[in-house]
Inverse folding.
């Protein structure tokens, strides 16, 4: 949490949240229910769609 708050580069998880403009907080305040559906092929399809439509993180340059 501290690495996220102070934008430190020590935690890979904190860096992932920062790079992808994610938030930390209570699930009720930072997430929303998109669909309510039973397990099965339709759920798998919807999950795949929502994962696909998420913005892809920018690739970093590997120059030294």
């Amino acid at each position: 949490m501290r690495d996220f708050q102070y934008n430190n580069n020590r935690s890979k998880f904190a860096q992932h949240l920062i790079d992808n403009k994610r938030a930390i907080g209570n699930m009720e305040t930072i997430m929303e229910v998109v669909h309510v559906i039973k397990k099965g092929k339709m759920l798998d399809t919807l999950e795949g769609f929502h994962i696909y439509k998420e913005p892809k993180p920018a690739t970093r340059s590997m120059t030294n």
Q: What stands out?
A: The chain is about 45% helix and 0% strand.
